[in-house]
Specification:
2 domains, Glutathione_S-Trfase (chain A), alpha+beta, glutathione transferase (chain A), Glutaredoxin, Glutathione-S-Trfase_C-like (chain A), Glutathione S-transferase Yfyf (Class Pi), Chain A, domain 2, transferase (chain A), four-stranded mixed beta sheet, detoxification (chain A)
Chain lengths: ~250, ~250
Amino acid sequence: MKLKVYADRMSQPSRAVIIFCKVNGIDFEEIKVELSKRQQLSAEFKEINPMGKVPAIVDGRLKLFESHAILIYLAGAFPGVADHWYPADVSRRAKIHSVLDWHHSNLRRGAASFVLNTVLAPALGLSLNPQAAAEAEKLLSTSLSIIESIWLKGNGRFLLGGFQPSIADLSLVCEIMQLELLSEEDRSRILGPHKKVQQWIQDTRNATRPHFDEAHNILHKVKTKLAVQLSVRANSEMESSIKRVLPSKM
Amino acid sequence: MKLKVYADRMSQPSRAVIIFCKVNGINFEEIKVDLSKRQHLSEEFKEINPMEKVPAIVDGRFKLFESHAILIYLACAFPRVADHWYPADVSRTAKIHSVLDWHHSNLRQGAASFVFNTVLAPALGFPLNPQAASQAEKLLSSSLSKIESIWLKGNGRFLLGGFQPSIADLSLVCEIMQLEVLDEKDHSRILGPHKKVQQWIEDTRNATRPHFDEVHTILYKAKTKLAVQRSVRGNSETESSIKKLPSKM
């Protein structure tokens, strides 16, 4: 039975899993779980992942969620995957685990919360929280600095001095790509100072083309849509504040 | 050269690594990095872990941090470690990774933030934040419920239906043990409803005795100390509010 990948390409870890499968020629069926329609909370999907999150996979009798765990599993279970994605060497593997663990409480928390609280919240029925956004930006910027000074220190173009990408490169780069949804101003303030990160994103993209671009298409479409919604909201707010301020006879 | 473990037993992931080494007869040297003295921020320790966090290990020329990564490394690099801690089977390993990944953004975030914002912050030079504490309590309580309804569903006494503990049991139980420093009221409100979690803590403790108890001793000492500090602070606050009363009374 073919591997099933439950995903929404708007979710950065979903994209990482999809790109990984495509780059490594893993035969899979992509099943869309639309977050904006809250399909991840349906009783049907909870049978797949009781936590109500994407991505999740079903491989024969095995059900699995959490994207890092999925990437490691796929690298181990599918024989066609090249060693550099998740090296057999215990020490190199340990370093990859270290990056992935760090990701959870640093880059991911900063990036996901910043994008949610500056752009995505209204589309998901939540309100934007500028204070949470400001806190998230600090964590995000520190995380990008640490990627440059610690994780990208080394000879190769990739994390941990690698000459070829590992699952950690793919996972972290997909996280940062979510910043594509931000306004130009926010995006360039945050990513601008980090030239080494920009180069590394480019290198990871080049190493996983054309699948990388194809899986990220959705972001550019959604960005345009969100910008329109924001400007509509801004206009209507302006109108209502004009109405409030201006005397009604004018 | 002997394995070096840089740790502070007040840190829950430090305790998990220390207990793991002791239970599995791994010969190691424990090097204390005192968080309350901010030793983790020293130049010397930055050479070991540039992220300035405990635990970290040095094994020969190899340096490693992040406790889950350390536990996995130790399970693989030291041949005497029994299979149940980190099974060789790809599917069972995958499930353990899934629990550990979940831990990061759920149980750990809730528990660590709640303990910090109700008890530990003053000792580390920060103010207590009741709003952050109440958000953390929600995440913590829902995490404990999920442990019961999802991770402890199965035949065995341990996570994922295991009959013996894995590194995930040890890591998560050490996290929950941090709640021992809370005052009784908070502790019983949060843990009280979760009988299955309580039984699982007991089972993990029994499976890793006497090391589990020995490594957790520090928490009970810290709890007494923190309670004294709190009551001193409480009294001085009462005094200062009394002083606010009109001086002739």
